[in-house]
Structures are given as structure tokens and as C-alpha cells.
Amino acid sequence: MSSYKDLIVWQKSIQLVTEVYRLSKTLPKEETYGLVSQMQRAAVSIPSNIAEGHDRNSDKEFSQFLCVARGSLAELETQLIIAKNLDYINQEQMTNIK
Predict the structure, then answer these.
(1) What percent of the chain clears pLDDT 90, i.e. is strictly above it?
(2) 20 CB-near residues (< 8 Å, 6+ apart)
(3) Cys-Cys link to 93, which of 1, 29, 39, 89 (CB 3.0-4.6 A)?
């Protein structure tokens, strides 16, 4: 594979970032520097780590970056659960983001 852009996981994670940014526009303004910022950073971290890891020199390094991306995904999922528990988003919105 010549480019990280060819990876389906990278392509899907880019879609996820787009969905998170769209969803975050619906959250209360007082969450701009809190939950919104955290969600956006966690989401952006996923494809960023996939891309960086892909362009490293070894499979071992790539694997490490994939683990970091997976951790960011878990972080984002946690933040979405918090947003749902605070009634900022509903179950349908949460399901659509995944």
C-alpha cells in the first residue's frame, strides 16, 4: 500500500472526524472549550495517528500508532457517552456517529 489515504480505516476515521465536527456544532456554547474541544481533538487524533504510523519505518511503529489511535477512539466514545448522559445528544445521534 503506497499511501495511508488508501487505508479503509483512515478513510472511515476521516468520515468520523467530519461527523464529530458536525455534531459538536449542536452542543451548548458553554461546552466550546470543554467537551466540544475534547471530542474534536480525540477525533482528529485517530486519522492523524494512523497516517503518522503508516509513514514510519517499521510495522512495530505502525502498530504502536494504531494503538494510540484506538485509545483516542475510546476517549471519543467516552466523551459521546458523557454528552448523551448530559442530554446534549440523543441515542440516535450517538449511533449515527459511530
Answers:
(1) 91
(2) 39, 40, 43, 76, 97
(3) 89
Q: Would you call 39 helix, strand, or coil by DSSP?
A: helix
Residue 16 neighbours by CB under 8 Å, 6+ apart = 43, 46, 47, 76, 97, 98
Count the alpha carbons within 13 Å of 18 in the hemisphere toward its beta carbon.
6
Helices (H), the chain: 8-24, 35-54, 59-85, 91-97
Q: Which residue has the cell 457517552?
A: 81
**Banded pLDDT at 88 (limits 50, 70, 90):** very high
Per-residue pLDDT band for 1 (boundaries 50, 70, 90) equals low
For 3, 47, 71, the CA distances from 8, given in Å and listed in that order, are 11, 11, 18
Which H or E run contains 28? none
DSSP 7: -
